[in-house]
Design goal:
about 120 residues, mainly alpha, two-stranded antiparallel sheet, about 75% helix
Length: about 120
């Protein structure tokens, strides 16, 4: 009975960890656009932070934090990868681990593609 519970808990934890990187990417996307819109509407987009415009600086800082969180989750999933042999090695465990890592890579790409325009395009036109 305890073996079935641990297996269920492992699958549920792997599934939740797999959805965290895309959720982080969506949060970064929402922050970037909401922050830029507020900065333009409130007319403080020209403010400077340590010599940089506030909108690109905030988006880049948020991107760095998002990428760090995604990397921590992906590294944690890599460290807990399923056993290669034995009773614990099931195709479901391997699929969830691989899918979690693939989603982390895609989420990191989404964060980079969201942050890149902030470096080249003016916040308010």
């Amino acid at each position: 009975m305890s073996d079935g519970m641990s297996r269920t808990t492992t699958h549920a934890g792997a599934g939740l960890a797999g959805f965290a990187p895309p959720a982080i990417a969506v949060a970064h996307f929402a922050f970037s656009y909401i922050f830029a819109a507020l900065a333009c509407a409130r007319r403080w987009a020209d403010a400077q932070v340590v010599g940089f415009d506030i909108v690109p600086a905030a988006i880049v800082i948020a991107a760095v934090l998002s990428l760090a969180a995604i990397a921590a989750i992906a590294f944690g999933r890599w460290r807990r990868r399923p056993a290669a042999v034995g009773a614990a090695a099931t195709s479901g465990n391997h699929f969830l681990a691989d899918a979690s890592r693939a989603l982390a890579v895609l989420a990191a790409a989404a964060v980079l593609l969201t942050a890149a325009p902030a470096l080249y395009v003016p916040a308010c036109r």
